Amino acid sequence: MTEISAAALRGAVDLSSLRNRPASPAPGAAPAAAPGAESADVVVDVTDESFGEIVELSRSVPVVVDLWAEWCGPCKQLSPIIEKVTREQRGRVVLAKVDVDANPQIAQAFRAQSIPMVVALLGGQPVPMFTGAVL
Fold first, then answer.
1. Which one of the listed residues 44, 72, 93, 112 is annotated catalytic?
2. CATH number of the structural domain spanning residue 76
3. Does 105 reside within a domain?
4. What is the reported pTM?
5. N or C: which terminus of the chain has fewer CB atoms within 10 Å of its end residue's CB?
6. 72 is known as an active-site residue
7. What digits encode the pLDDT tens for the residues 81-115?
8. DSSP for 77-131?
């Protein structure tokens, strides 16, 4: 496995401390994570500051992270599709939307080199899904 220098991670969001924490739902997240929750919006905008709550939420429900930017044409095509599919799941999955321009620490933590980039969080651990608009 390749060793990563501390300098390369400067400003990144450190998720390692969450690995051994006990699972607990994020504040206000229970309705979104409950299967059959039709009234709760399962599509949330995430910031560098609130990302820890999303990681914790992923311990009880799968979270799909959509890394996007306002200027990205393929992102504008892909995002509505992901949102629609997420809402159809009625709480079995949550979509966390991350504007990479406004939240560079999250983009850096996922080592996003191009967008759109979609990653799943399962049990607090990232699982790469795809990069680019797969339509």
1. 72
2. 3.40.30.10
3. yes
4. 0.69
5. N
6. yes
7. 999 999 999 999 999 999 999 999 999 999 999 99
8. HHHHHHHHHHHHTTTSSEEEEEETTT-HHHHHHTT--SSSEEEEEETTEEEEEEE
